[in-house]
Amino acid sequence: MTERNSLAAMEARAPASANGDAPIPFANPFAQYETYRTEINAAIQSVLEKGHYILGENVAAFEHELSAYLGVENTIGVANGTDALVLALKGLQIGAGDEVIIPSMTAVATAAAVTLTGATPVFADIDPATYNIDPEQVEKRITRKTRALIPVHMYGQTADMASLKAISNKHGIPIIEDACQAHGARYKDGTAGTLGDAGCFSFYFTKNLGAYGEAGMVITDDEKIADRVQLYRNHGHRSKFEHAVMGYNGRLDEIQAAILRIKLKYLDENNQKRRVRAAVYHSLLNDTPLSLPAEAEERTHVYHLYVVRSDRRDGLLEYLSGNGIGVGIHYRTPIHLQEALAPFGFKEGNFPKAEAACREILSLPMYPELSEEDQIYIAERIKEFCSKGKI
């Protein structure tokens, strides 16, 4: 079984008891399916019966409904989060010879999207309190080739957008938000994805708003960006037999859109449940040596992930896994040290805050259906580990 398929199998398990006899899954999309089973099954059945599977009425309706939820003019459904980033970059006409600043700690897709346009990713270190890109480091990385900035709203909390927008305005550099982990997260009076020139979402099945496969979205108030994204996602198709640009197949399909329409109705409710689960963790783990997530001022964290930090991370991971608790690491290796980025010549020590975080972070189980009983069990095992002098 591949690493990806193994992860998917683990994340899809139904919830288990908290007595240690069976694993507590790291994520549990099946539990959410159980909650909305009737609505979701009916939505899928309707698509199958109508026989229109690509860019049909559900895609259009989901785009409209998400646009209303976010308060933006344009929402363009695409195949996945990586495509959303690639298409947003192409919407800004970024390509070979251009530089795009991204955080050194993020999923590989952020960097991959930049390279897939022919542009060069330029890394900046993180704020270790929130794991988001550090605006001061961004300012230092700007050159005459810098064409865009992609802040990633890590783990469900937005980056320091006021500082980043000040830099954007000062240098005339557009912002593309990677909001793939931050559906519904708030920054002051705005929502993640609406705070820059364009925003990108992934609806991977374990996200706060997750499909049952792959899906994504580009959002923007800029009509020119929106027009280019719509063209590029569908082979440059403007009308029958007319292709305005060389695009590709990056379309959102009807079944995923139908599922997402159901789940969007419950997004705020489920985000609030995640916040309650986070508060329970805070209370249970406050007296341990672990560093717990910090919620910055004027931000509403939606806890896509609940990430703790320990200088004995690997031992704790092994102990929790051995006691039936699904855990994860997001991410073990910073992007600039990945083999795929070796041609860019980065080495250990270039971005020390991201590197230190990647050695110490651990993601605990987090989903709306996680029971307090299971959280108590997880906390007890962590405290057990600590009492044995392992941290």
In short:
With 391 residues, the chain is an alpha/beta fold.
Q: Can you characterise this structure?
A:
- The chain has helices at 3-11, 29-35, 37-50, 57-70, 81-91, 108-116, 135-141, 161-171, 223-232, 254-264, 267-285, 313-322, 352-360, 372-387, and strands at residues 74-78, 99-103, 120-124, 146-149, 176-178, 186-187, 190-191, 198-202, 216-220, 237-239, 242-243, 299-300, 306-309, 361-364.
- The chain has 391 residues and is an alpha/beta fold.
- It has two domains: 3-28 and 266-387, Aspartate Aminotransferase, domain 1; 37-264, Aspartate Aminotransferase, domain 2 (3-Layer(aba) Sandwich).
- α5 (81-91) crosses α9 (223-232).
- The chain is globular, with a radius of gyration of 21 Å.
- The relative contact order is 0.16.
- Residues 1-22 have low confidence and may be disordered.
CATH topology category name of the largest domain: Aspartate Aminotransferase, domain 2
Shape: globular
Q: Tell me the Rg in angstroms.
A: 21 Å
CATH-defined superfamily of the largest domain: Type I PLP-dependent aspartate aminotransferase-like (Major domain)
Helix content: 40-55%
Strand content: 5-15%
CATH first level of the largest domain: Alpha Beta
Question: So, CATH architecture of the largest domain?
Answer: 3-Layer(aba) Sandwich
Structural class: alpha/beta
Unreliable spans: 1-22
Structurally, the number of domains stands at 2
Separation, N- and C-terminal Cα atoms:
33 Å
Count every helix, treating DSSP H or I runs of 4 or more residues as helices: 14
Q: What's the pLDDT, averaged over the residues?
A: 93
